[in-house]
Amino acid sequence: MFFSSSAFIPTFALLLSLPLLFLLDPGILPPRHPISLPDELDDLSLFHRATALPDHQYYRQPLFPTSRSRLGSTNPTPKIAFLFLTNSDLHFAPLWEKFFSNSNPNQYTIYIHADPTVKINTPGGIFEDRFIASKETHRGTATLISAARRLLATAMLDDVTNLYFALISQHCIPLHSFKFVYRTLFKDPKPMQLAQLFQFQHLNQPFPDLPYQSFIEILSNESILSDRYNARGKNVMMPEVPFDQFRFGSQFFILTRQHAVVVLRDRRLWRKFRLPCINKEPCYPEEHYFPTLLSMEDPKGCTHYTLTRVNWTNSVNGHPHTYRPPEVSPDLIYKLRQSTFTNPYLFARKFSPDCLKPLLDIADKVLLRATGQRSSPPKKKSFIVGKFNIVAD
Fold it and tell me: Is pTM, for the whole model, over 0.90?
């Protein structure tokens, strides 16, 4: 039966108005960038393999040909896994090359998650063949959580001697030499303590009472918490995540291996955090998932502060201050190292790509200086000659 002309006109007008309605109120559109079922299943398979009960034969074949696992060694060397999360070129690759150049190659591994929808140039060198199987990422969505978990899982599966996992962005720079970073994290490990760390592979064991903590920011009194908590809808996070246990913190962390296991084995909180936000404002789930999960599971095993320095002065659209070449100086590096916590900051962001040259210019004498590692500018000595006060550099 055909519509009459009188009924057709308002129907046609309504159809024409829909695009305009979506434009004026994008909140009525379906949430953007949901995580697809195939991607979810791929990740679950990877996470399950990475957290399986320890089987030394299982770990003997590394995922990467350049992996340097020493599983058969009587005293294996613990490593730091550097996890680069990027959606653009690694502009500071030459600086990171210098950072790793004077280090023991048995003390670190590198993994890169690069958005496959973006054309990224491979920097080569130490970054050659370090790109992992990656998926699309979008700012302010749970895809960034998935990418970080993917990096953790790949690093755990690739090398059982990866005991610390440092998440790094393409805008991050090191503030100290590799030796300084390594000693800060592992201090002076005793053989028995390391043996316990290597043995901890699954949640059936209690958290070992060791002097190693995860360096992750965990805040609970931020004014943004209420809006972020309800970004998916009122009470949607319940009952898994009560508001009084909802936490906030920097997405850039350094996790111990046992906490990486906690993150990869989690399904309960992930079911909530993976839900897209319906709030028009971004909800940045990557700034809440990791602090909330670890605060609920093992708060004493976390420092509650990060070792990556960020300047939120005059932030724009949720982005921190971006340092430009004229700002790069030894004094800036000394300032960025300073911390009110037990340890100085080890990394800093956010730097524009054109900062590479001025950073390289001060790399050897300041940034990556192997000795001294001052957190503040060197004090100048003064002495009196006649009636003049002479200041020596």
Answer: no
